[in-house]
Amino acid sequence: MKRETRRLLKKFFSNFSACLGFVLLVFFFIVAVGAPYIAPPKSARDPYMMPIVTWSSNPLPPSPEHPFGVAGKRDIFYGVVWGTRTAFRIGIIVTVVSTLIGLAVGSIAGYFGKLVDEILMRITDIFMAIPFLVAAIVLATILGAGLDKVIIALIVFSWMYSARLVRGNILQVKEEQFVMAARALGVSDFMIILRHVLPNSIFPVLIQASMRMGSLVITAAALSFLGIGAPQGYADWGALLNYARNWMMGSQGEALRYWYMTVFPGVAMVLFVLAWNLVGDALRDVFDPRLRM
Amino acid sequence: MLQKNLLEVRDLRVYFYSDEKRELKAVDGVSFSVGKGETLALVGESGCGKSVTSMAILRLVDSKGKITGGEVIFDGQNLLLLPESRMREIRGKDIAMIFQEPASALNPVYTIGEQILEAIMLHQKLSPSRAKEVALEMLRLVGIPEPEKRLNEYPHELSGGMKQRAMIAMALSCRPQLLIADEPTTSLDVTIQAQILELIRELQKKLGMALILITHDLGIVADMAERVVVMYAGKVVEEGNRFEIFKNPFHPYTVGLLRSIPRLDVERKKLDTIPGVVPEPSSFPVGCRFRGRCNFETGECVQEPPRTSLSNTHAVYCHHWEKVRDSNAEVLKECRAQ
Amino acid sequence: MSSAVILKVENLKKYFPIRAGVFRKVIAWVKAVDGVSFEVLGGESLGIVGESGCGKSTLGMTILRLYEPTEGKIFFNGQEISGLPFARLRPIRKDMQMIFQDPFSSLNPRMSIGAIIEEGMAVHGMYSPRERSSKVQEILERVGLSGNYARRYPHEFSGGQRQRIGIARAIALCPRLIIADEAVSSLDVSIRSQILNLMSELKEEYNLTYLFISHDLAVVKQICDRVLVMYLGKIVEIAGKKDLFSRPLHPYTVALVSAVPVPDPDYKVDRIILKGDVPSPINPPSGCRFHPRCPVVQDICREVEPSLREIQEGRWVACHFPGSLGLKRTKEVGVEC
Ligand SMILES: Nc1ncnc2c1ncn2[C@@H]1O[C@H](COP(=O)(O)OP(=O)(O)OP(=O)(O)O)[C@@H](O)[C@H]1O
Ligand SMILES: Nc1ncnc2c1ncn2[C@@H]1O[C@H](COP(=O)(O)OP(=O)(O)OP(=O)(O)O)[C@@H](O)[C@H]1O
Ligand SMILES: [Mg+2]
Ligand SMILES: [Mg+2]
For the segment C141-171, what is each residue's pLDDT rounded down to a tens digit? Predict the structure, then answer.
C-alpha cells in the first residue's frame, strides 16, 4: 500500500489548486491552534468570549492596537483569530457526526435493500424536502441559542447527503463479484459492509464531506448573523458580521467607511470555504477510479 | 495468390507514448498482404496488436499513438501519405470496418435507420428516398426480419446478434472492396456466431470483397480463412495458408497455441501449455519476443529472428524453425506408435 | 472416487420480478431458472452449457443460496439447504465454493492477496492466525504463484494470475463442491489452458466436485465428465460427455455442437444454423421452449411441453422426438495425433 499512497500523494501535490487549498487549510489550522499566542486572552475568563475593549458602541477603524478595528465594542482581530477555532469546531463536529449517521443509514439501506431501504430512503427524502436554513432556524430557536444547539440543528439537517451518496455507492459496489465471493465464503453481513463495501465506497463520501465542511461554516455563520447561533460576544465570524448589520450602509457620503467590519471576517470565511472546496476537488481527481493507473 | 494484391502492409510500426514518455512498440514491423476477394485471418492473443494494426490501416490510431513507419498500399496508393480528406473518402467507402462490441459501436440516440442512412449518404450521392431503399435492401441482405419496422428502432431494442447484423449492413452499404472485421462474433453466442459467420461468408461471395478477419479463436480461423497471419507481441511470427498453419506450423508459438486449445474433435487428457504470460508492451524482450516462454530458446534468440520463406505463402520468423519441424515430426511418430 | 450424490436439485425455480411505475408494482417475472432437477455425484465434474441468458449463472448462485430460490429444493450432502436460515447455512458454505468469471471485479481492490485468501479461513475459524499465513503461502504456491505475493494488491496482477488467486481463495476452505462460473472465459488461449490444467489437477488432489458453468463447449468437454444443456431456464439434455458430443439427441444440442468452430481445416460439418434469437425468458414460448427455432418442429411441440426423461441409462432428454436431427461431420471425436 505504501507505493500506492506515495503515488496518490504525488498526484495530489502536482496540482496547483490542491496545493493552494492545502496551504490555506494549514494556515487556518495554525491560526486555530496558535490562537492563545496570536491573540492572547486578556483575562482568565472563557477565551472564546471576545473581551470588551471600548465603551462606545461606535466601530473604530484599524489601528496599531486593534489591527482589524473594533466592532460592537470588541476587537475584530481577536474575534477573527478565535473565530477560526469556532469554525473548525462547528465544521468538524457537524461533518463527522452527520457523515457517520449518513454512513450508518446509507449502508443499512443500500446493503439490505428492499423494505429497509424503502423506509430509510423515504425518511431521508422527508428531511431533504425541508428547506435547510429554515429548518435549522426553527430548530435552533426551539432549542434555544448557543453553539451546541446550532451544531445539533446542523447535524439533524445535513446527514441525508452522505446517506444518499453512501447508499448509491453501496448499490454499485454490491454488484461487484467480490461481494458475492465474500458471501459465498460465509462472511457475515456486518463484516461484508465493513471490509468489502465501505472501503470501496468511502472516498466519495469523504470528498463530499470536505466540500460540505465549507458550506456548513457559512450556514453556521448565517445563523449567527441572524442572532440565533453563538451567544453575545462569542468569537465567531458570523457574530462579527452581525455587529456590522447596522453599519453596513456606511455613513453619509462615505459608503465604505466601515469596510473593516465586514471585510476581515468575510475574507476569513471565504478563504476557509475555498480551502475546503479546493482540497475536496483535488481529492476527487486523485481518487477518481477512472483516472487510476 | 496469382491475383494482384488489394492491400499490402509493409513494415508497419505503431508506437504509443505513455505518460512517462516511454515508447510502447505495440505494432513493430508488421507486413502482410490481402488479395482481391481473399479472406485473411489475423490471430493472436489479447494485446498482440491486432486491433491497432487494423486501425492503423485506416489511420485511426488514437492521439497517444503514432504510426512511426511502414507503408499501407491499398489499390496502388500508400494510404499513409494521403491527405486526411482523401482518407475520409476511403474509410467506409472502400474499406469498411465492423467492431467487436456491436452495442457500443452503434449510437444509442439514433435509430438504426438514421445511422445506416448516414453511412450511405456520406459516400454516395443519392436522393433520400433512394438511400432509404438501399438501406432497406441492406437490412434484408443481412437477414434482419421486418426491415421497415427495424429502420425506426433504436439500438437497445435489438438483440446482440441483430445489432451485429445492423453493423454489417452499415459497413457493406457502400460495397467496400475490403472489410475489416475485428472480433465480429466474440460477444455473441455460438449459434448466433454461426449465423453471423455464415452471413459474412455469403456476402463476401456475393459482393466479391476481401476480408481481414481479426480473431483469437483458431476454430473460426480454420473455418473462414484462406490465409492466416499469426501475431505475437506486436510482431508477425508466422504466416501461411490455413493448411500450412494448422498442419505444419513451424513457429513454437503457433505450435503451442494449437496444442493448448481444448477441442471438440480431439480427446486430450491434459492440455499442453505455454508457460508464463503474454508480456506487456513496456517489457517486450529484445530480439525474438517469444523469448522466455519458448522451449527452443538459445542464445541466438536475442537477435531479431529472420524471415524464412518456406513456400509461396508460408513464412516463419524463428531461428529454430527446423528444430520445431523435427520435433513436430517426432510428436506425430510417437502418437502413431501408440 | 466416491459416487454418493453430493448435490441434488429438485424442481428449482428462480424468478426475478420486473417492477415499474411509481409504486414499483411487479409487472412481469423473468423466469431465469424454471423447474430444474438434477443430481451431481461426489468427485465428478458436471458441465452446464447454454447460451447467454439461459439461466446458468442464476442456477449456480441459487444453489449456493446467493439468490433465494423461488421454489424447489436443494440438497447438499443429503441435507436440505433450501430452507435453512443463514446462521445454519454458514458452516455449510465452507464446503461449497465459487470461482467467478470476472478476474477483475471478483477481488476486492483494497485487500491484499493474503487477506483475500485468509478471510474465509478466519470466518470459519480454521487454523490459528499463524498457521493461516503459512497456509496462504502454501496455497499460493499450489496455484502456481509465488508465496511473496500475499502482501501485494490485486491491481498488480494480470487476468490469469487473478484467476489463480480466485481459485486459491476457493480451495483455501477445502470445499467439497466448487461452482465455477465461466472461470476461464475471459482468459487468453495460452493462459486458459494453464488454468484448466490447474483445475483438473486440484480436482484430483482435493477430491473436488465441480459444477462447471460455461458457454464454451470445447472447454466443458475438456474438463467435465457429464454435461447438462440448458435452454431458456430449462434443462434440455443431460448426458455423459462422450455421448453428448458424439451423438447429441436434443435438436438444440445438435445445433450447439455443430456450431462450434473446430481448429482443423479438414473438419467439415453440416452446420445447423438456427433461425432467430433466443426468446425472452419473460414470455417463454408455449409447449417446447425451443420450438420456434427448432428445425424438426412438429405440431405437438407447440402445445405440449416435453418432460425431461431418461431414455437410456444416464441420458436424459426433454424432447418429443429425440435424435430426429442428426449431426453430419467429417470427423468423429478422436484421440490426439
Ligand atoms: N490508446 C492506447 N494507448 C496506449 N496503449 C495502447 C492503446 N491502444 C492499444 N494500446 C496497446 O497496444 C497493444 C496492442 O493492442 P490491441 O488493441 O491492438 O490488441 P489486440 O491484439 O486487438 O487485443 P484484443 O484481443 O484484446 O483486442 C496493447 O498492449 C495495448 O496496451
Ligand atoms: N438480478 C437479476 N434481476 C433480474 N433479472 C436477472 C437477474 N439476474 C439475471 N437475470 C435474468 O435472468 C436470465 C438468466 O440470467 P443468467 O445470468 O443466469 O444467464 P446466463 O446463462 O448466466 O448467461 P451468460 O452466459 O450471459 O452469463 C437473464 O434473462 C437475465 O436477464
Ligand atoms: Mg482488439
Ligand atoms: Mg452467466
Answer: 888 888 888 888 888 887 888 888 999 999 8
Check C218 against B335: CB less than 8 A apart.
no
Residue contacts between A and C (CB atoms, under 8 Å): 67
Cα separation of B266 and C200, whole Å?
18
Of ligand 1's listed atoms, the one at least distance from the Cα of B214 is: 22
Chains that touch A (3 or more CB pairs under 8 A): C
**Least CB–CB distance from C190: residue in B190, B197, B256:** B256
The residue of chain C nearest to residue B338, with distances taken between CA atoms, is: C337
Mutation target for B interface from C190, C195, C212: give the one with most B CBs within 10 A: C190
pTM for the model: 0.81
CB atoms within 10 A of CB B45: 21
Q: What is the mean pLDDT of residues B64-81?
A: 90
Q: What are the cell numbers at C33? A: 431458472
pLDDT value at residue A235: 77
Q: What is the nearest CA distance from C289 to chain B, expressed in angstroms?
A: 16
Question: Does the beta carbon of B24 lie inside 6 Å of ligand 1?
Answer: yes
Residue B36 has φ and ψ, to the nearest 5°, of -60, 130
Alpha carbons B308 and B315: distance in angstroms, whole number: 5
Asked if the Cβ–Cβ distance from C173 to A293 is below 8 Å, we say no
Please judge whether C61 and A1 are an interchain contact, meaning their C-beta atoms are less than 8 angstroms apart: no
Q: Is the CB of A196 inside 8 Å of chain C's CB atoms?
A: yes
Single out the residue of B249, B211, B210, B209 nearest to residue B230, CA to CA: B249
Report domain extents, chain A. 32-291
Q: What is the mean pLDDT of each run of 10 residues along chain C (337 residues)?
A: 82 89 79 94 93 90 92 93 88 90 84 90 88 90 86 84 90 92 86 90 92 93 94 94 91 93 87 82 90 92 92 92 84 59
Which one of 3.40.50.300, 3.40.50.80, 3.30.360.10, 1.10.3210.10 gives the CATH number of domain C5-95+175-331? 3.40.50.300
Q: Do A183 and C66 touch (CB under 8 A)?
A: yes
Q: Do chains C and A touch (3 or more CB pairs under 8 A)?
A: yes
C-alpha cell at A67: 489591527
Q: What residue spans in chain C does CATH classification 3.40.50.300 cover?
A: 5-95+175-331
Tell me the CA–centroid distance for residue B30 and ligand 1, in Å.
15
Which residue does chain B place closest to C263, by CA atoms? Answer: B219
d(CA C107, CA C115): 11
> Is any atom of ligand 1 closer than 6 Å to the C-beta of B46?
yes
- For ligand 1, whether the C-beta of B216 sits within 6 Å is yes
- Specify the pairing of strand B178-182 against strand B210-215: parallel
Residue B107 Cα, gap to closest chain C Cα (Å): 22
- The predicted complex's ipTM stands at 0.85
Whether residue A92 has pLDDT greater than 60: yes
pLDDT in tens, A145-200: 777 887 888 888 888 888 888 888 888 887 777 887 888 777 888 888 888 888 87
Residues 101-160 in C contacting B (C-alpha not used; CB under 8 Å): 158, 160
Q: What is the CATH number of domain A32-291?
A: 1.10.3720.10
